[in-house]
Design a protein that fits this description.
Elements: H1 2-20, H2 32-35, H3 37-41, E1 53-58, E2 63-67, E3 69-75, E4 85-91, H4 100-106, E5 119-129, E6 134-143, E7 146-156, E8 160-168, E9 184-192
Antiparallel strand pairs: 1-2, 1-9, 3-4, 4-5, 5-6, 6-7, 7-8, 8-9
Length: about 200
């Protein structure tokens, strides 16, 4: 009789402990939304296409100028450069070196040949991060029907994405001078960020 009574008490205690036990949280089952919160919040930067500009410098001649962008598409997030892309077109007729006679000559067939090739275009193939706020954009530049791969180095600050590259116009059949090195052209891209 005592044995049966003891067994009943033991069963009762086990049941009480079983139902009253508090299960500790399983740390391995954390809310995954926290883990991906930063990715979900990431947004592409928006650029002011109206104020964006391209400037250049014919180094040998010390001739500076600008060219107007007619089409610009930038898909860029500094935290997701693998999915970034850059493309755009500039209008040859808008080349401005602050000398209308020289600008007119640049439209000739020997140079940019505006009538046959009215635009200059660029399309990126890859964007690579190089340290803090520095990015290399690799893509194809087409001038006067000639397509060449170039690399543009961009630096990012709070207000602007600034790009720089150097080409030789003779590589694109734009022969300002006979010697290739004298056809050096430094180019800057200025893309203001919309706040």
């Amino acid at each position: 009789m005592k044995i049966i009574f003891g067994i009943k008490i033991l069963i009762y205690i086990i049941n009480i402990q079983g139902f009253s036990q508090i299960t500790p949280p399983n740390n391995s089952r954390q809310n995954t939304s926290d883990k991906y919160a930063l990715i979900d919040d990431v947004k592409n930067l928006e650029f002011d296409t109206e104020k964006s500009k391209i400037s250049f410098d014919f180094v040998e001649e010390n001739t500076k100028g600008t060219i107007s962008i007619v089409d610009l598409k930038i898909n860029f997030n500094p935290n997701d450069v693998d999915n970034a892309s850059f493309s755009g077109k500039a209008s040859v007729k808008t080349i401005d070196t602050n000398n209308f006679l020289r600008d007119g000559h640049l439209m000739w067939e020997k140079f940019f040949y505006k009538r046959k090739y009215p635009t200059i275009s660029f399309k990126s193939n890859q964007v690579v991060s190089f340290g803090k706020n520095t990015y290399k954009v690799i893509g194809n530049l087409t001038i006067k029907g000639v397509e060449k791969e170039i690399i543009i180095t961009f630096s990012l600050n709070d207000s602007t994405l600034l790009g720089k590259t150097t080409i030789y116009t003779s590589d694109f059949n734009v022969n300002i001078h006979d010697e290739r090195l004298k056809n050096k052209l430094d180019i800057e891209f200025h893309f203001p960020i919309v706040k």
